[in-house]
Amino acid sequence: MSEYLIKNGHVFDPVQGIKGDKKDIAIKDGKIVDKVGSGAKVIDASGKTVMAGAVEIHAHIAGPKVNLGRIYRPEDKLFSCTPTKGLERMGAGASIPTTFKTGYEYAKMGYTTAMEAAMPPLFSRHVHEEIRDTPIIDEGAFPVFGNNWFVLEYLKNQEIENAAAYIAWLLRVTKGYAVKVVNPGGTEAWAWGLNCLSVNDPVPYFDITPAEIVKGLIEANEYLGLPHSVHIHPNNLGNPGCYETTLDTMKLAEGYKAKNKFGREQVLHLTHTQFHSYKGTSWADFESGAKEVTDYINKNKNLTIDTGNVTLDETTTMTADGPFEHHLTGLNHLKWANVDVELETAAGVVPYIYSPNISVCAIQWAIGLEIPLMMKDPMRCYITTDHPNAGPFTRYPRVFKWLMSKKARDAQVNAFKHKDKVLSQTSIGELDREISLYELAQMTRAGPAKSLGLSAICGGLKPGMDADVAVYNFNPDKPVANPDDIETAFSRCAAVFKSGVQVVSNGEIVATGHKRTLWVNAKVKENEQVARDITEKFVKYYSMTQANYEALGHHFVPNPYALEVDATQV
Amino acid sequence: METVTITMKNPPALYLEADNISPDAFAGKTAAQIAELSVHEGNTTSALSKYFDVSGGAGATAADTKIVVKGDVKKVKYLGFKMSAGELVIEGSTDLYVGAWMTGGRITAKGNVEAFAATAMKGGELIIEGNAGNYLGAAYRGDWRGMSGGKILVKGNAGSDIGMYMTGGEIVVNGNVDVHAMTHAEGGKLIVRGNAKSKLGGQMVAGDIYVFGSIEVMMPGFKPAGEVALEVDGTRAMFAHFTGDMGERHKKKKGEVVYGNLYRKI
Fold it and tell me: Which candidate, A118, A326, A530, B144, has a CA 20 to 30 Å from the CA of B167?
């Protein structure tokens, strides 16, 4: 493999505490090293910003519901096609890009790792086929557990060991990365025409509450010592007043400590926090609950969050929170699609337009920015758009602009039709904080990597780590003349390296790398009961046989990277 | 106003996608520059001059530019695509997407046009002297935003699914229309001087349909609401009034439910 020396860039690396010093980054055999030989290819980064490759902790970029969105929204591709160009295959889609476009767009912005946030286990093979076809970036996928019959039954009886054995089995057969929970109990309740809007609403038939599901999954997750914590989309998403459910959900993590060998400190990751930080009793008195939610998170160190920033675009919402999507189509009357996934989960899809002329959308925009601006520790708060739910991931540079420039935020506030309402219902006008490049590196690199248990591999530039490096045309020594320059600089990298291979040069794809599928191989003691339960459920309920369930082999996972966990001695 | 005349000299073997033939793309260009604009035949991109002779010259702006298209353009798509001003005259018949996404100006097609003419049209005028195909003034595939403004006149007949998801503007068809007119409409006006077939106004939320001739099969979701005297498109007559589609959601305005209206001349 070639050697590279990225010279004289302003390096921002929270892993080593480097805050913009001029430093050289050396790359050899796919890793960051102390030094390279004189024959190394030199990349001149003087006057530029150098960071580790960014880590996406939560996006919907592969699998059946993403593809359902692609299929039923031909209009999303209408004026967003990119023809074949050099190494790039053709792509299309604005809010739900094709797999190839997804890989190219992430790479061009300096992202080298991404997590698919909701994998229906039954369709893991489809998820992995799409991951395989998404070039360049390393990807993992979170199977959903919060409405799974096995989980509901084991946790109802407080059988943590059995739940853990089942989780280990499911992660192995689906090549999954972490325990995702979406509207715990609520999606299953919806199959009975109901929902769970608080942590104490019982799930019909199973007679278990969301609180019991979440606590049980945290215990099973820490029993196994998985790299990532339980990753939760709580009950009652997107409703005025939902911040109370969010606080109740976070309180369930009280008293639990992270137990793992990966350096992860949290026991619960709260995703797309913006959608869960609403006060008010209706859309008429809708207001921000960002302060209440972030106050709690600032005090409780065993939590991490991501933001879910609204980008004010036309987009496509999609979630395993089936009842929420049904509720949403009733609000905006746009087309709705739903898939039920047998014993496991469901998913709904509805297009949505976040219009700057609608006060609710403008307030949502403000809440998404309030959260990171109110978070004291950037290592525990990560930037996402919950792609494509609050906006497409391709808008990250614009979100960075809003976070890094009060002037840019004020310009947007002034452009809103209901400016006064935004200022009265949120505190966005009073927040003067501007996120620094170092904090941005914490929120997009070191932080998410640590939360995912990947801090030994990515998210930093320490010798020994994977050589994932992004070089931006952004000079931190010069004052920002126009906030739009931030957006331009972070949209297209000067150079990007993925595992030591230069994949982007001057904003163009120059190699497609050797993307890996990240998954977690958790070993547990032999558990005959769980093995018998799995066999029985396949025979009695599943529409496919157990032999056809596993995502196995080169076709699905051509380049696997397993994080090994041994829970046999617990 | 300056006039550019383009004449088909070498008809394509496949269909030609000519999204550059509009006053907006031609404005400010000489005949030689216009001849260099790109068109696509299958996966091959070529200069306009491969297929057309170009004469005359464009005005400084789209509004000052008139385009006359001569010769056999039956296999040419997207004439007047996204046009915002000026004039386009098509002397014969043409293929799909005439005036699609147009926002202003006037297009006159002297022959027939194929499907998807005036897709998601926002403004301007489209006059079709022959027949129109299916999906006239409708939304793009999958989209819920059909024609929202402007005016379409069809002197002959129109096909099926016209005005689908229409939200505004006006379509007048002097002849007959095929099935599924104004499906899902949330506004706008359709006048059919001839006869209509079935599924007229199906799932219509709001908007108005006027039929001068017969309606082969009425939608069951429309309810009789008496008779009214109206002047429609210059004709005074009595009309039977129906409201619907009762199977669809409807907005309220000042406490009153707003329905779609269907009027049939008595």
Answer: A326
